[in-house]
Design brief:
By secondary structure, this protein is mostly helical. It has two domains: 191 residues, Clc chloride channel; 174 residues, Clc chloride channel, CATH 1.10.3080.10. It contains 17 helices and no strands. The longest helix is centred in the first third of the chain and has 41 residues. It starts with a helix and ends in a 12-residue tail after the last helix. The model has no long low-confidence stretch (mean pLDDT 92). InterPro entries: Cl-channel_core, ClC, ClC-type_chloride_channel.
């Protein structure tokens, strides 16, 4: 009993330290990324033509200094599955720098993959210093949660994302307390350091009649198909790109030139970067076109298949929100509710996670709408299980 109490106390103390460190790094990464994005938007015509050069520099940095760091999220899953013992610490500066480059020069990518990798690397490294047996997976999950929470400031969603993402349908419950504590600390730390949380409280009074429930279930089906379709397309595109363009330098240059042309021609840079512009337009009543979600999906896949660093989650939020704006009127549902539901449910379909997307809905849009998110996200989750944006995710 005394030993258990001692071990738990040590893990909790370590979780606090982990949360503080990761929250600080997430704040720096997130604030610089926002500055970079704003600067790019103001000078897009100057930076976008040099996307291929940024790609070459990113590949060179990984080839010269990165070693196995180029495997990215796969390293996290390999550690979680016991296939490797550590994540190279050089990953942290490399993933931050190359992601800033991706966004400065107009690549269509996200940011959560960076935060998760940073969190997992720091936490797993510190966990090795804690004299407790079999703590590798606990600290890995704790770091994933803290990384996600520090960037998005959704600690509940971050906790359950970390618990459920490694194995579909199975929660890493031994890490629950440490993951939650580290998430709360990381979230508060990044907020104190000036990184703002994105939230749009919605007040929806929609009676859950049988007809409305059916509409929500169909909407969830649509979102789930798009999320799983994104994951399947991403896997296919990466395979084809590496098959036909074996040399990573050639691959990133060829696809970057194609991307640059598309990003210029398609709405003058509407689809560069994270996609937060589409999210804001969707939730603030701005103009959303019927093809926005599809073009953002295709361009994000091409960016990641080329070899640029970043993530998928924020683009998935943008894809889901803009798709929800288009689909909601066909079902006679409030447009803002459709955008909010798409924001969470496409993420669920692409990651094979259930609890985290529901909690994201609550933490971003308000828990008064939980019943709507539960129906739609559960349907989107059940549609998939075959594809995931994380290739090594166990099913």
């Amino acid at each position: 009993m005394l030993k258990t109490f001692k071990n738990t106390s040590v893990v909790m103390l370590a979780a606090i330290v982990i949360g503080l460190l990761i929250g600080c790094i997430d704040a720096v990464f997130g604030k610089v990324l926002l500055l970079v994005s704003d600067f790019r938007d103001a000078h897009l015509i100057i930076f976008l033509p040099f996307l291929a050069l940024a790609g070459l520099l990113s590949v060179w940095l990984y080839q010269r200094f990165g070693g196995e760091s180029s495997k990215g999220m796969n390293l996290v899953f390999e550690v979680g599955q016991g296939k490797r013992q550590e994540i190279p610490r050089i990953l942290i500066p490399l993933i931050m720098l190359t992601t800033w480059l991706t966004h400065l020069f107009g690549g269509s990518a996200g940011r959560e993959g960076v935060a998760v990798q940073i969190g997992a690397t720091i936490s797993h490294w510190l966990g090795r210093l804690v004299p407790i047996e079999n703590n590798s997976r606990v600290f890995l999950v704790t770091g994933i949660a803290a990384g996600f929470a520090g960037l998005f400031q959704t600690p509940l969603a971050a906790t359950f994302f970390a618990l459920e993402v490694l194995v579909v349908g199975q929660l890493a419950l031994p890490a629950l307390l440490s993951a939650l504590l580290a998430s709360l600390v990381a979230s508060q730390t990044s907020r104190i350091l000036g990184l703002e949380k994105f939230s749009v409280p919605l007040s929806i009074n929609l009676s859950l009649s049988p007809l409305v429930i059916v509409k929500l279930l169909i909407l969830g089906l649509c979102f789930g198909l798009v999320g799983s379709g994104f994951a399947a397309f991403l896997s296919w595109a990466k395979t084809q790109a590496s098959h036909y363009l074996i040399n990573p330098y050639t691959r990133i240059v060829v696809l970057s030139l194609f991307l640059t042309l598309l990003l210029f021609l398609l709405e003058s840079g509407r689809y560069v970067g994270l996609g937060t512009n589409l999210i804001l337009l969707s939730l603030k009543g701005g103009p959303i076109y019927g093809w926005d979600w599809l073009l953002k999906l295709v361009l994000t896949v091409l960016t990641l298949a080329a070899g640029f660093q970043g993530g998928e989650v924020t683009p998935l939020f943008a894809i889901g929100a803009s798709l929800g704006v288009i689909l909601a009127p066909f079902f006679g549902l409030p447009v803002l509710l459709g955008a909010a539901l798409g924001y969470s449910a496409v993420f669920a379909g692409a990651t094979n996670t259930l609890l985290a997307p529901i909690l994201i809905g609550g933490e971003v849009f308000g828990f008064a709408n939980t019943s709507y998110f539960l129906l739609v996200v559960a349907t989107a989750f059940l549609v998939n299980h075959q594809y995931s944006i994380y290739p090594l995710q166990k099913r």
